[in-house]
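Protein 1 of 2
SEQ + STRUCT:
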Amino acid sequence: MSGKIHLSDAEWRRRLTPEEYEVLRGHGTERPWTGCFVGTHDAGTYVCAACGNPLFRSGEKFESGTGWPSFTRPVSPDAVTTVEDRSHGMRRSEVRCARCDGHLGHVFPDGPPPTGLRYCMNSVSMRHVADGAPLPALVEGIDAAP
């Protein structure tokens, strides 16, 4: 992972679509069964829609029946971070992009082996890059930390 990216709220609003901004910066959630990656099984890598950081490999994706794309693990332990989320009267582990702190979704301890985890992600927070295609250049940020 490249260095952390730090942008102003105004810059995020310029770079992201309104729907991407609502989820990635506003910690929103797309409605179940509406995301473009719910039933996708194409080989490749899912990257952060905000900064291009590689997040999940398609081989870790599984059908959870929840209405959101689900994965058993990230591409590497340092690709994502988790933060306690006590919103909506629940206690959950929010998953964020480790590079830009964009909200991706939540992780739950009810996934399949071998991890037993279910990384339940918002489609709008990611882009799919097919195997064999170059990964996008990481977004460079104003005041990006080295």
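Protein 2 of 2
SEQ + STRUCT:
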Amino acid sequence: MKKLKHETELVKEAIRVGAVYMQKRGAGQIEATDSAGNKITAIYRLLVLDKLIQPLAKGEDNEPNMRHKLALWISRQLPAGHPLLED
């Protein structure tokens, strides 16, 4: 798994966008007091459930891998030329 250049910022953006998606879908709400790990897990599982991302293999579903999957997902959602996609 190769780390993306702006992976930390991409994960933050994925959490922000994923929280909005979760709320609009009616699947729950991300609270400011929730830990980053809980936010990542909830958004990852919702995206897998809705078949927006492919699930990780059994045994590989840990927080670092979920973070990477969310970073990849949001990098595909951002428009071309977005500052987080620059090399």
